[in-house]
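Design review, sub-item: ligand-bound model
Attendees: FS, YL, KQ
YL presented the inputs for the NDP complex:
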Amino acid sequence: MRITVLGLGGVGGYVGALLADQYKNEEVTFVMRGERAARTREQGLLLKSDYRGTHLVHPAQVVESAEGLPVQDYVIVCVKNYSLEEVCRTLSGCVDDHTIVIPIMNGADPGDRVRQYLGKGLVLDSLIYIVAFRTPEEIVQQGNFAKVFIGKKNPSEVEQEKIAKAAELMAAAGVDCFVADDIEAAIWRKYILNCAYNVSTAYYNSPIGPIRADKARAEEYEKLVYEAYAVALAKKIHVEQKDIDHIIWRFYYDHAENASSSLQRDMGAGRVSELDTFCGYIVQEGHRLGVPVPVMERMYGEMKEREVKAGLR
Ligand SMILES: NC(=O)C1=CN([C@@H]2O[C@H](COP(=O)(O)OP(=O)(O)OC[C@H]3O[C@@H](n4cnc5c(N)ncnc54)[C@H](OP(=O)(O)O)[C@@H]3O)[C@@H](O)[C@H]2O)C=CC1
Ligand SMILES: CC(C)(CO)C(=O)C(=O)O
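KQ shared the predicted structure:
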C-alpha cells in the first residue's frame, strides 16, 4: 500500500507520524521541504503528542515534491489553504481514479477546490479538531483530543465503502477518525466556530479568556457566529440553531482560558495567514448571496491592512 502525506506541519505531522508508525511495512512517503526534510531523512520525525504519546518515525521515503511519485492509494494533504492550489499541481502524476485524496484542513471548501484542481481520484471532504504545531525539531500536539471526520456529499455505495476503509486505515493508526453522515454540515459547524474563534483571537491577539471576559468583545464574537450562520443558511447547509447555541456555549463555558487558534499563532508570529479562509470567504459569500456580514467585513478589512503593512500581501 502506498500512502503519501503532503504538508508535515502541525496537522500533517500528527497524522503522518501515526500513519508512518503503524504502516512501517508499507510505503509511506512524506513530502517535506528544505531543512526539515533533511532532518527527517537523517533523524526521523518526532511527534510529541499529549493524546497519543511520543513517536519517532522513519517513513519509507521523504521527498521534496510529489512530482515523480508513483500512483498512490492514499494522498493526505495537510497544507495551509493558500498553498493548496500549488501543491495540487504536483499531484497529477500520483493520483489516478482509484486514489483516495483527503485534504485535512480548515475552511469550507478545500474538498471542492481539490476536486477542481485535480479532476480525478476520489477526493473526500474532512475536518479536524486538534491543537498542533511544528517547531524545527518536532511536531507538538496539545490537549487530550484530536478528532477527524471524513465523508463526501451523496456518495455512491462503492464510495461509501472506500470512505469507511479510509476511516479504518486512520483509526488503526490511532488517528480518531469518524465517517460523518452529513460532512458538509459537520464542516460548517466547525467552520462557523473558526469564523468567530480564530478571527477574534487573531484580531485581538489574545486567547479566549480575556475576550469572553470583555462584554463588547464577547458580543462581537456572538455576532461573528451569527453572520457565518446566516451565510451557511443562505447556502442551504444543514446547520441548526442548536449547533449555534453549542458554539456560543463553548465560547463562554468550555474553551480554556488560554485557548488560542492557528490564525492567531500565524498572525501573531508575522507569518502569511489563512485570513482569506476565515474572513475573506464569508465576506465574499455574504456579498454574493446578499447576506449582510458587517462585523466580519470590518475585522477582515483591518486585519488585511495589518498584513499589507507587514509586507505579507
Ligand atoms: N494547527 C492546528 O492546530 C490546526 C490546523 N488546522 C488546519 O489544518 C491545515 C494545516 O494547518 P497546520 O498543520 O497548522 O499548518 P502548518 O503551517 O503547520 O503546516 C503546513 C505544512 O505544509 C507544508 N507545505 C506547504 N507547501 C508545501 C509544498 N509545496 N511542499 C511540501 N510541503 C509544503 C509546510 O512546509 P514548511 O514546513 O516547509 O513550511 C508546512 O509544514 C490548515 O488549514 C489549518 O487551518 C485545523 C485545526 C487545527
Ligand atoms: C478551533 C481550532 C483550535 C480547533 O481545532 C482550530 O481549528 C484552529 O486553531 O485553527
